[in-house]
What we know:
By secondary structure, this protein is an all-alpha fold. It contains eight helices and no strands. The chain has helices at about 5-25, 30-55, 65-85, 95-110, 120-155, 170-205, 210-235, 235-265. The longest helix is centred in the middle third of the chain and has 34 residues, at about 120-155. It starts with a helix and ends with a helix.
Amino acid sequence: MIEFLPYFIVALIYSFVAMDFWRTAKIPTADKTLRWHSAMIAVGLMLHGWLLYGSLFNGGLNLGLANALSAIFWLTVLIYWLADLKHHLHSLQAFVLPPAAFFVLLQKLMPESHVLPYANQPLFKAHLVIAMLAYSLLTFAALHALLMAAAERNLHNKPTWIKLPDFPPLMPMEMLLFRVIGAGFVLLTLTLISGVLFSEQIFGQAMKFNHKNLFTMLSWIIFGGLLLGRYAYGWRGRTAIRWTLMGFVLLLLAYVGSKFVLEILLHR
């Protein structure tokens, strides 16, 4: 019970901030409250990071499904927290904090021992760090796209399942979305390149043709196509949102889907 307490505290911090935001969603939120939310998220991030460190480096590099998801959402919350300091994305709390609370609990409730055998290889370390950052940035982009979809419907007075008072203007939101996607695409490109180099170094084969690599390549093509469409044709609005979510779903299938099948269904 005592071991579970820190995980529960982190989940409680994330959930409490999200619920307090929802509670005050129908009234203008004071700057003091928003600063308090930011401070609480910072505390949650520090405790969450400490728990992740102990769980990830337990007898090697233990990157089981629950640990991986918790790490990705820790990075996603961190990216949100840093972006919020400049862009005032308070409404994104409604999207990013609840899943982070869920996955930090899952990290403790579903411990998986999946120690990676090549964790000491420098190229693999670089590949892993780049991949985690890419997944986290593109997760942030997907959550941001959902917020944009809700903001757009709210702007046109259409029925929507979310009612928040402080949507940022759509143009700055859109600019931030493409900046994040651009950075995520660069990191995803480096992930693919480092993965090829690592595979060549360890297995003597540049890339195995499996569903993980296939979905990752498709996601890379979609995000690249979206950036090209933005530059060449000025894609924006619903088109950008749809392509972002489609690329994210494929990336989710590539990474989470493959780990779920291997670790949960096949127990490998």
